[in-house]
Design a protein that fits this description.
- The chain is of the alpha/beta class.
- The protein contains six helices and eleven strands.
- It has a single domain, classed as Zn-dependent exopeptidases (Aminopeptidase), CATH 3.40.630.40.
- Strands 1-3-2-6-11-9-10 form a seven-stranded mixed β-sheet, with helices on both faces. Strands 4-5 form a two-stranded antiparallel sheet. It has a two-stranded antiparallel ribbon with strand order 7-8.
- Strand 4 and strand 5 form a beta hairpin.
- Helix 2 crosses helix 6 and helix 4 crosses helix 6.
- The longest helix has 28 residues.
């Protein structure tokens, strides 16, 4: 039996596939939904609703940005706890045995066959379909811009995080540089480079796999999730990020 049943559908979703804008928004941690085959992974309902299972608010913000930018949105429909699609299969973080202070019993001691089953069911469709979308855009003469959207918890291992928005990059900082310059001019949010995570934490896998490997402009956005708990906050932050992204694209295209 596979990880996903036929009734559970495709592991990835694509919205606004015929978008005229050049941005492809990617949300790897959009959902806290678990496949029925894995049960609860031994976690409580509270843990499964928390940041360890998904990025709260990230999909809502991504949808608002996609609407404003006429961008395509590509996202994972199942929880990062089953497979974190922003990690390669050989990374321990792809199927974490522990996430922050929570042990994940259902991920403890997975054998090679179990890891392979999750990789085939969740990661490979995500990677391959996103790669195909990027190739198609390039072939059409519309080289895309890869923008991944995430949220992070305000308190991590008991420590409060002051940063509100993170603009992250790997080896190509051009778009991030321009967005950070726009953020400095705006001043509404505490916006920082490569915080609360950076490339050294292994969080730029999607950027490397689909952006850097194709020579495409790319950036990763992190939003503190207390800012986007409700629709009003989501709209404010989406508007702010859309403005930064437009300014960044304008500056890098000159």
């Amino acid at each position: 039996m596979g990880i996903l049943s036929v009734e559970e559908g495709d592991p990835v979703a694509l919205e606004n596939a015929v978008a005229r804008g050049k941005v492809i928004l990617v949300c790897e941690h959009a959902s806290c939904l678990l496949p029925k085959s894995v049960g609860s992974l031994g976690l409580t309902d509270e843990a499964l609703a928390s940041h360890i299972a998904w990025d709260p608010g990230a999909l809502a913000v991504s949808r608002l940005m996609a609407e404003s930018l006429d961008a395509t949105l590509f996202y994972q429909r199942f929880s990062r706890l089953v497979y974190d699609c922003n990690r390669p299969p050989d990374s321990p973080a792809a199927m974490p045995e522990k996430s922050e202070v929570f042990d994940v019993p259902g991920n403890a001691g997975l054998d090679r066959a179990a890891r392979e089953a999750r990789t085939v069911a969740l990661y490979l469709p995500f990677r391959d379909k996103l790669a195909r979308l990027v190739r198609e855009r390039i072939a059409d003469g519309r080289a895309p811009v890869i923008v991944t959207v995430h949220s992070f918890t305000p308190v991590y291992f008991g420590r409060q995080r002051a940063v509100e928005i993170g603009i992250l990059h790997d080896a190509d900082p051009r778009l991030a540089d321009a967005m950070l310059a726009a953020a400095a001019a705006d001043g509404r949010f505490d916006t920082r480079r490569n915080e609360p995570y950076g490339p050294e934490d292994g969080v730029t896998h999607t950027l490397k796999e689909h952006g850097l490997s194709n020579g495409l402009a790319n950036v990763m956005i992190e939003v503190r999730n207390d800012l986007i708990r409700d629709e009003a906050g989501q709209r404010v932050v989406a508007g702010y990020l859309t403005g930064l992204l437009r300014a960044g694209l304008s500056a890098t295209e000159q």
